[in-house]
Amino acid sequence: MMKALVVREGKTIAVEDHPVPQLGDDDVLVKVVAVAQNPTDWKFVDAVQNAGTVLGCDWSGHVVRRGKNVTAEPAVGAHVAGFVMGGAFADSGAYAEYVKTPAELVWAVPPGTLSHEQAATMGVGVCTAVQCLYHRERLGLAEPPEKTEGAEWVFVNGGSSSVGQYAIQLARLSGYKVAATSSPHNFALVSSLGADAVFDYRDPNVVATIKEATADGVHHAIDTQSTKETQELCARIMGKDGGKLILMFAPTFKAKKLRKDVQFIPTLVYTALGRPFALGPQAKYAAQPDDRAQVVGFLKKLPMIVQNGLLLPNPVKLWEGGLHSIADGLQYMREGKVSGEKIVYRL
After folding, report:
1. For the sheet containing 197-200, what is the strand order?
2. InterPro entries from the xrefs (predicted)?
3. Domain extents for the chain?
4. Global model pTM greater than 0.70
5. Pick the residue with more confidence: 233 or 150?
6. pLDDT band of 150, cuts 50, 70, 90
7. Could you give the CA distance from residue 307 to residue 31 in angstroms, rounded to a whole number?
8. 130, 298 in Cβ contact below 8 A?
9. Strands 27-36 and 98-102: what pairing?
10. 15 φ, ψ (degrees, to nearest 5)
11. Strand partners, 345
């Protein structure tokens, strides 16, 4: 048995004794050292409510056991990181002493580069940004080591969010110019990550200002928030010839009506995990082998990218108390208090 943060009835969670996950032939078992918090965590508690499942997605730790088909990397003892879909399955969740995951969905953290706390921030955020930017059915942009000549703009709404921070860095690594929005207190952070131009999303003239700065040339965009309001904002920011806007949720009718020349493309990174899942009785998703192959391919490149200092982790807000303090951290996030940083717990 192990200690794990388990979803209970009535929108509650509790630290409980829980079975250690049974490995499949292609899996690894990881002793978790640090976990990072995502908005999806509290949403799974409040909305999806899969009682008996283990919560948490992002993790970093050491390999302690391998399935019989895992004969190469990662080795037992290796420092690895990755993400799972917390709140969906009884045998897979990061907020636990042990997590199981397919071996091909972990990445080896290069020695001397990132702490466990930093590596834990590079799960859902990195892979969502990768899916948005590079998947052929999303933006389909040049993926490292390929590089464009830098004449095209990528717009990131919510540049200080976890996904936004990684999307900015990766788009710049691919040679694109980046425009982003954030709160003014995060301008310095967003600029330091490579954004060429940063704008206050509350500015009533933000659409006109961005269009002027980009010569009305935004044809690739990611809305990391994807509320009704931000979808409409992003639709207006798209350039005169339209383009693709990647969303975290389904597009609204009004946003689509605003721009007939824009493709509104929702994405959900959990489709890359190779396992069917549900977000409720009416929201069932099949595994997508193409999504998985794309993420697996990038994870093979990630250690060298990190080794060369080309992708920085989210700023860490270390929340003391381990598993027993996560409920407080989730409430802090529910209240909208997280900005420009990632809440991380050490187990």
Report:
1. 197-200, 177-182, 153-157, 218-223, 243-247, 262-266
2. ADH-like_C, ADH-like_N, ER, GroES-like_sf, NAD(P)-bd_dom_sf, Trans-enoyl_RdTase-like
3. 2-124+272-346, 139-266
4. yes
5. 233
6. confident
7. 23
8. yes
9. antiparallel
10. -80, 120
11. 35
8 Å CB contact between 81 and 122 = yes
Q: Which of 241, 197, 194 is CA-nearest to residue 220?
A: 241
| SS3 per-residue string spanning the chain | CEEEEEEECCCEEEEEEECCCCCCCCEEEEEEEEEECCHHHHHHHHHHCCCCCECCCEEEEEEEEECCCCCCCCCCCCEEEEECCCCCECCECCCECEEEEEHHHEEECCCCCCCHHHHHCCCHHHHHHHHHHHCCCCCCCCCCCCCCCCCCEEEEECCCCHHHHHHHHHHHHCCCEEEEEECHHHHHHHHHCCCCEEEECCCCCHHHHHHHHCCCCEEEEEECCCCHHHHHHHHHHCCCCCEEEEECCCCCHHHHHHCCCEEEEECCHHHHHCCCEECCCCCEECCCHHHHHHHHHHHHHHHHHHHCCCCCCCCEEECCCHHHHHHHHHHHHHCCCCCCCEEEEEC
Choose among 155, 265, 150, 260: nearest CA to 207: 155
Decide whether 2-124+272-346 matches 139-266 in CATH topology. no
Confidence (pLDDT) at 333: 97
Q: Does the 139-266 domain belong in CATH 3.30.2270.10?
A: no
Which residue do the tokens 């199981």 mark?
Answer: 100
The whole-angstrom distance between residue 315's C-alpha and the CA centroid of its chain comes to 14
Report the CATH fold assignment for 2-124+272-346. Answer: Quinone Oxidoreductase; Chain A, domain 1 (3.90.180)
**Separation between Cα atoms, residue 273 and residue 300, nearest integer Å:** 15
Residue with tokens 């004969």: 71
The pairing of strands 316-318 and 342-346 is parallel
319 phi, psi to nearest 5 deg: -105, 115
pLDDT confidence band for 247 (50 / 70 / 90):
very high
Contact predicate 218/242, CB 8 Å: no
